[in-house]
Amino acid sequence: MLFTTILAALAAAPALALPTIEAKGAKFFTSDGDQWYIKGVAYQLTPDDPLAQGEQCQLDASLMKTLGANAIRVYHVDPEADHDACMSAFSDAGIYVFLDLDTFSTYILPDNPSWNDTQLKAYGQVMDVFHNYDNVAGFFVGNEVLTTGANSIAAPYVKAAARDMKAYRDSKGYRNIPIGYSAADIASLRPNLQNYLACGSNTSESLDFFSLNAYEWCGTSTFETSGYSQLQKNATDYNIPIFFSETGCNQPMPRNFGDQSAILGPDMADTWSGAIVYEWIQEANEYGLISYNPSFDTDPANFAVSGTPTPRSPDFDNLKSQWATLSPTGFKAADYKPSLTPPPCPSFTSALWEVNRDVALPTLNQKFDASVSSAIKSGSGAVPTATGTGGSAVAESIGGSSPSSSGSSSSSSSAQQVIGANSLFYTILSLVFLW
Ligand SMILES: *[C@@H]1O[C@H](CO)[C@@H](O)[C@H](O)[C@H]1NC(C)=O
Ligand SMILES: *[C@@H]1O[C@H](CO)[C@@H](O)[C@H](O)[C@H]1NC(C)=O
Ligand SMILES: *[C@@H]1O[C@H](CO)[C@@H](O)[C@H](O)[C@H]1NC(C)=O
Asked: What contacts 204, CB < 8 A, 6 or more positions away?
């Protein structure tokens, strides 16, 4: 009886021995006290849930280990599915997981943003089923919600989501799993958004990390010409961890992943915590490091979503060679005394950043208050300062014309297409799901 109880307990407990990941100051550390740098791969074989098929995860995790990866990013899961087999397959291979908490029907919409009970419950459900896996490295409350200045009205809702998911995590007694956001790389928007998500003296209301989907470094580029030197300038004094949640421009092919030596080398490793390369599977957008069906490689519309992963040449080996030479050690947690302070909250700038600096975050279920926006817009000095009162939501909606998002980033057109294609894909899917 006792024996079977113990057996049952052993079977139920995640059989994992990886040290857990925590954010401290502007860096990630393992519970062993070492600074942790991400060498990750985006992993979403099917829209539903790539972490529900244990055997497939086993095959992929083994090959990722030979690649030198230590993390994956997963965009969508089904909280009802069983994830034990996949999570242990990745853990056994030394691979951590960054996971988006949103689902197709609950993500924060850019033009009509909300943060409500339904969303909180859905995000919480994902956290409930994943928090106990030792190899969960972080949760995202959103991916590329904002892509234009007009979308900045959604930023307070993203921040409110992080506030409430952090509070939920703590109220449940879950470990301190970092909670952050994955941003589109729009040059006109990025610095304000990056600073906004970290600003303010109350850390219960700011994010635990910020990450960027950036496709600026294409072909044989350099730290200066790629635009990475600007990313570095904007991040030098950032007080929370920052990393690339997607990277890997694929024009021109093949990819040599030269940016990894900037990110994980002397140029950026003092500031950035690594990168997640987009992506594992070869699909129509042709970013794959592997293919499950190499004979269909020349016909991307016919890609397979499961099977034995076969490295695509030369991209897979190029990334493997890069990572093999890059092992920044950084700080020991005990020697690291964070001293950076949060950045100032950005001020309202019409068409660029339409969020008032002084207005409180929306409370759960609170809708945007239009009267606040007209006061802000007039610059009349009648700006409500609802600080601390849990008062008005921020922002303003621009009727009709949206500011140009061109001239935005120096990223390649292919990256813009990818972002567009992904969003369209998710929009169609979410419509199908809603329907
Ligand atoms: C909550 O937000 C979701 C996602 O945007 C939306 O679909 C839903 O209608 C909202 N629910 C309420 C009650 O506003
Ligand atoms: C910090 O923010 C949290 C969440 O909004 C709030 O409950 C708390 O009262 C705030 N603390 C201070 C000192 O304002
Ligand atoms: C970000 O970098 C750009 C280019 O160097 C600079 O113009 C801008 O002022 C920086 N913004 C912030 C918020 O640091």
From this structure: 163, 166, 167
Which residue segment(s) compose the domain that 151 sits in? 19-346
The answer to whether position 49 is within a domain reads yes
Cα(209)–Cα(403) distance, integer angstroms: 28
Is residue 411 over pLDDT 80? no
pLDDT in tens, 252-264: 999 999 999 999 9
List the CATH number of the domain containing 141. 3.20.20.80
The residue nearest atom 6 of ligand 2, judged by CA position, is 204
80 alpha carbon to ligand 1 midpoint, in Å? 21
Percent of the chain with pLDDT over 90: 72
Q: Assess if residue 425 is contained within a domain.
A: no
Measured from the Cβ of residue 352, the count of other Cβ atoms closer than 10 Å reads: 16
Identify the residue whose C-alpha is closest to ligand 3 atom 1: 234
Which active-site residues does the annotation give? 144, 246
Total structural domains within the chain: 1
- pTM of this structure: 0.85
Choosing from 190, 230, 349, 410 the residue with most ligand 3 atoms within 8 A of its CB, the one to mutate for a pocket test is 230
